[in-house]
Structures are given as C-alpha cells and as structure tokens.
Amino acid sequence: MKRSDFLKVVTGVAAATAVVPSLANPFIKASSAKKTHEPLVPVSIATWRFGLQTTAEAMRILSNKGSALDATEAGVKICEADPNERSVGLGGRPDRDGHVTLDACCMDHLGNIGSVAGVEDVVHVSSLARAVMEKTPHVMLVGEGARQFAQEMGFPLQDLRVPASIAEWEKWKEKAEYSPVVNVENHDTIGQLSMDMAGQLAGMCTTSGMAFKMRGRIGDSPIIGAGLYVDGEVGAATATGHGEEVIRVVGSYRVVAEMEKGFSPQEACERAVRKIYDFFQRREAGIQDTQIGFIALNKRGEVGGYALRPGFQYAVARGEGEEPVLLDAPALLPT
Asked: Is 3.30.70.270 the CATH number for 36-327?
C-alpha cells in the first residue's frame, strides 16, 4: 500500500473514533510483550506533523536500547534547530517587542524534573532543561539566570531570529493586534513522550510560545503538571495549544491522574479537554480562538490524543522498522 493511501486509512479510523469512541485505532494498542523480562516494544509519540521526524529519530535510539529520555531529547532537538518552524526554537516568532524567548521542561520515570522559561539566545532549551534537572539543586531557571547557566554549561549562544520571523514581526507591528488563529502553529509546542525497551517513560515539551506575546509571558510548556507530566508507574501526557487554558486545569497531570484511575490514554485526554470546555462554560468566556490538544502514553504502550476542535494531529512511532504514522485527533467541538 502506498504511504499516501495508508495515511488516508489511518485518518479515516481516527475520524471515526470521534463519532464512535469504542472503535479501536490499530495504533492505539498495548505492547505485545508479556509480563516477563522480555524487552518491551518501544513507543514514541509527539504533537503535530513535525512529530513524524522527531519520533523517527527517537525510535532510532530506542531500537538500539537507548533510554526514553535520551530518545525524546534527540527527537525534539530536531525541531528546535529547524529555522523554518515558527513555534519552536530557532526561528520561533518573537514577542511584541521583537525578542524570541524559549521555554521547555523535561521529566523522567522517577519524577526527576527540570525546566527553563523566558530564555534568549539558546536554541536547545530542552537540553538546558535537562541540565537544570541533572546539574542543579533546582527544578526551574528563568530569563537571564537560565541564560547565564547555559553559558556555564557550554551551550552556544546565537540570535534566534531569522529573516522570515523578523519580517512577520515587522508586518504584525503595522496593526499590533494579537489574534491567534486556530491550528496555525503560532501558539503551539512540540511535546514528545517515549517508552523504552525497559518500560521506562520520559517526556519533553519545548516552545517559543505565543507569537507576539507580551514581554515576559510564560505559558504551560515549561510548567510541570501543565505542559508535561510523567509518572513512571502510570503513564505520561503533554499538551499543546492555548497554554493559559491548560494551566487552568493542570492539564497534563490531569490526564495522567485519569489514567491512574483506570481510563485509557484516549479516554484520559478526552476527559481533560472536557474539563477545559467546562471552565469556558462556567466563565462564559469566548472559545472561538482557542485550540487545545493532549497526547498520552501509558505504561502498557497504549497511546491516545484528543483536541478541543478538529485540526490537531500527532505522530506515533512503534517498534523498529515501522515508519511513524500521523493521526488526526478526535475533537470535542465540530469546528
């Protein structure tokens, strides 16, 4: 079967799941490993289309018995270094004052955590977050302090702006209005979760934040429990979209907590999105410009994804020799 035809089939299954949640997606399944010391089938899952590249890289490492944390870091670094991506790393869109500031966090199966926020001039903030986790007594560094720590750790400094992102900022200044567009990656992240052959879980989340945000704005991505959460005995989750709304419900922790209750990753993501929607209804707040997406991976290798509205996609890579697959996440709202 041609890959294009294959993706159509997968997309059709995912769309059907939005109507009949009980339909099983062939890629949302448990590992076939028995309860022995037999190596598990490794899995990596990541937000958005760029996840096809990042999960493929993660799988290369996982298939060689690499750790979930190493694999996830290697994956997201591809996206961070791509100058054509406008919501992550090099080439990320600046804030309203023209500064590109990056946020990231990481968490492993033991509950070790690291985070950085509002960092300038450092491309690989995912690696910097890991350095905070492994090299400091703290869990979060921000702004100039994080930049200084990066220098001490030998991270190269460079201008994160590229000609295309500068041109977009100059164009935006003509009206200077903040108006996010749903499913246009001007306010998204890459969140990635992996499980290695030892059954260990890890996750990372990295972003340049909302385009043309207020100077100093921080979203959910560097906040453990909001943008990312990992419980090595249960599962892992990460979020993308409107960070303020994810923070409001401690979204990624909520997804993992639902899995701990016994819900599947798919059901857990759905329950978190519904909670966000409930808060909008209580506040009678406008929801038309908001998109939220969650992905999750449990200890058995099952995955799931769900969004507030259609358009959110995520990539899944499972086992050596199989290409990652891009899935359309089911959604709560019709449009």
From this structure: no
SS3 string, the chain, reads CCHHHHHHHHHHHHHHHHHCCCCCCCCCCCCCCCCCCCCCCCEEEEECCCHHHHHHHHHHHHCCCCCHHHHHHHHHHHHHCCCCCCCCCCCCCCCCCCCCCEEEEEEECCCCEEEEEEECCCCCHHHHHHHHHHHCCCCEEEHHHHHHHHHHCCCCCCCCCCHHHHHHHHHHCCCCCCCCCCCCCCCCCEEEEEECCCCCEEEEEEECCCCCCCCCCCCCCCCECCCEEEECCCEEEEEEECHHHHHHCCHHHHHHHHHHCCCCHHHHHHHHHHHHHHHHHHHCCCCCCCCEEEEEEECCCCEEEEECCCCCEEEEEECCCCCCEEEECCECCCC
In the set 47, 55, 101, 189, the catalytic residue is 189
Delimit the domains of the chain by residue range: 36-327
Q: Based on the residue annotation, tell me whether 189 is a catalytic residue of this protein.
A: yes
* Tens of pLDDT, residue by residue, the chain (335 residues): 444 444 443 344 344 344 333 334 444 444 433 444 567 899 999 999 999 999 999 999 999 999 999 999 999 999 999 999 999 999 999 999 999 999 999 999 999 999 999 999 999 999 999 999 999 999 999 999 999 999 999 999 999 999 999 999 999 999 887 665 554 444 568 999 999 999 999 999 999 999 999 999 999 999 999 999 999 999 999 999 999 999 999 999 999 999 999 999 999 999 999 999 999 999 999 898 899 999 999 999 999 999 999 999 999 999 988 899 999 999 999 97
